[in-house]
Design brief:
about 40% helix; Carbamate kinase; 10 helices; globular; two-stranded antiparallel sheet
Length: about 290
């Protein structure tokens, strides 16, 4: 498609992006990356290109990633069946070892390598490095699924200061040295809050928050926290969307300026959100009265 653009049109696109580039330079943007955008190889390449482009124009990008499908793959290969309670993975000691291997090892280093190949400077860490994410047991029924108790943000700040793109896998730990599987959305919300990020971008497999879940044209471009409560009570926000939206609200309460839920399956959706006046997905903001 790019070949249809003349050089003049390309230049015009760049000049239109200029005010947004100026606005976002030196801002901290946390991107929660997972779902289909992570499985589809072409989309993965495009997401990495978007992140490197933002980094090159001076945006301080922090990439927080999941890796559920990769964990399932390895568990299947090892003959271990995945179990879920209320949508959360039951994580016994053997499973948490697998989660740690896949997230902090394979997935994390693959993303770091891709960012470097695209011309970025990236460094991968897990929530266990520098005790970035301290956690405790969330629910005895779930085993080593962690509830975040504290975030020690200095490892990420150090990497940003040195000019790296921090790539964070969501494994937590406690003072006894136990590792915990942490929900990626929750970890991203806590990290973005601790950083006082300008924006948290949640990449998902849906268009955003829809008034009618079966009709993409009913996307709601902007919502305040009080409007979210209203939509919950009306049943518009329901099911698996509730925990995702709760993470958005949590992030804003912790000091993030705004949170965007967007469809990671749309090519270059991150750039559309940050560098055009159109935006992408649904933006969640605090109420104007604070």
């Amino acid at each position: 498609m790019d070949n249809h653009f003349s050089n003049a049109e390309r230049a015009e696109v760049l000049t239109q992006a200029l005010p947004y580039i100026k606005k976002h330079t030196n801002e901290i943007v946390v991107i929660k990356y997972g779902g289909n955008a992570m499985i589809n190889e072409q989309l993965k390449q495009q997401v990495m290109e978007d992140i490197v482009l933002l980094w090159l124009i001076g945006v301080k990008v922090v990439l927080v990633h999941g890796g559920g499908p990769e964990i399932n793959d390895l568990m299947n290969k090892l003959g271990k069946k995945a179990e879920f309670v209320d949508g959360l993975r039951v994580t016994d000691k053997e499973t948490v070892d697998i989660v740690q291997m896949v997230l902090a090892g394979k997935v994390n280093k693959t993303l770091v390598n891709l960012l470097e190949m695209k011309g970025g400077k990236a460094m991968g860490i897990s929530g266990m490095d520098g005790r970035l994410i301290e956690a405790e047991i969330k629910d005895e029924r779930l085993g080593f699924v962690g509830k975040v108790t504290k975030v020690h943000i200095s490892p990420i700040l150090d990497l940003l200061e040195k000019g790296y793109i921090p790539v964070v896998s969501t494994i937590g730990c406690d003072k006894q040295g136990n590792a915990y599987n942490i929900n990626g959305d929750t970890a991203a919300a806590f990290i973005a809050g601790a950083l006082g990020a300008q924006r948290l971008i949640m990449m998902t497999d849906i268009d955003g928050i829809l008034r009618d879940k079966d009709d993409p044209s009913t996307i709601i471009p902007q919502l305040t926290i009080s409007e979210i409560q209203q939509l919950k009570s009306e049943g518009v926000i329901s099911g698996g969307m509730i925990p995702k939206v709760d993470c958005c609200v949590e992030a804003i309460h912790k000091g993030v300026k705004n949170v965007v839920i967007m469809d990671g399956r749309v090519p270059h959706s991150i750039l559309m959100e940050l560098l055009t006046d159109e935006g992408a997905g649904t933006m969640v903001m605090r109420d104007s009265n604070g």
